[in-house]
Amino acid sequence: MQSSLTPFRVAVIGGGPAGLMAAQTLAQGGARVDVYDAMPSVGRKFLLAGRGGMNITHAEPYADFVTRYGKGSAPLRSMLDAFGPQDVRDWVHGLGVDTFVGTSGRVFPTDMKAAPLLRAWLHRLRESGVQFHMRHRWLGWRDDALVLDTPDGELLVQADAVVLALGGGSWARLGSDGAWVPLLAARGAAVTPLVPANCGFDVAWSEHFSSRNAGEPLTTVAIISTGADGKAFRKQGQFVVTQGGIEGSLIYALSAALRDQIAADGSTTIYLDLLPDLTAQRVADEVARPRGARSMASHLQSRLGIKGVKAGLLRECLSKDQYADEDQLARAIKHLPVRLLRPRPIDEAISSAGGVRWDALEGTMLKSAPGVFVAGEMVDWEAPTGGYLLTACLASGQAAGRDVLAWLARS
Known about the structure:
Flavoprotein_PP4765, disordered N terminus, BaiN-like, RsdA/BaiN/AoA(So)_Rossmann, 2 domains, FAD/NAD(P)-binding domain, alpha+beta, FAD, 15 helices, 36% helix, TIGR03862 family flavoprotein
């Protein structure tokens, strides 16, 4: 962008990946950029996500990658075309951080850590003139000025344009608390209610079962359920039994469909295949083998390796008569019903769905508030774990920055 933009001042509210990428794009375009964040430091959720290994994007074919965003796939497409998975890797490399592709296709920094990447990025932003203002909580507008609560009292900020990148509604203690929803609604923006994404679910376990199995992983299982289109689907992986339900990677991957089914019907039932590598006939044959004086539990462990939490699930989900019936037991091992009551609260979710509706936007600018742009999880899209969420946040941040520059150039 031309140097004529230098006098323009842009306020970025929110110091997560979307806000920082918007700030980077704006600074590169010649705008003066101030980033405001309510927390003591930026990128707190970014750092938390990196504690178990910083998954930055995914290396699957791009044609598959862009389908992972549900109903948001179509409106996100142009943003991802401009800043997709390979662009994310190139950008990380440009910050002096190497990456590698894991066996699942997920992409990580070589050292698996988020902090060095964030430090390098913030150093680059400060070098480009971006100013950071911490412990500045945005409270809305007074006339055309932004109202910020600061350690020194209330501050009014005038800006030529604003990028809002305040996140969704998960992990409020890290800054994403959804407090912006009524503020935008008051400005006439249509907002879909925020709901949990990549979340666990409540199950009415008995005290006997939960006290013995909470925290135990279910490895190499498959879930059979029904999608939003009414079609059955099956996905294999692992998850964890909790004190009051289930959570983990396999559950997160299916959580959007499960959440929507519960919203429509009040609850939903999934079916577990406890031995997905064995055919139903093989399981039936092994269950029916003579067991002599051995108990059924010992028989299942000896013939099929069913023990621990898997054995406990069979006892939990089947009646005494069903467990004693070899045919019903064999069928249950391959198709065990588990009723899900509700998603876990949004503040426990990895991310959220809902947000500013796409039809309330012109590009990334609010139709009801010219000069106000939104990015990241504030917009109504969701993504599974695996680097998809971060990639789309970065892409939408860049798109918002570019839209601001174009809008300022026309002003």
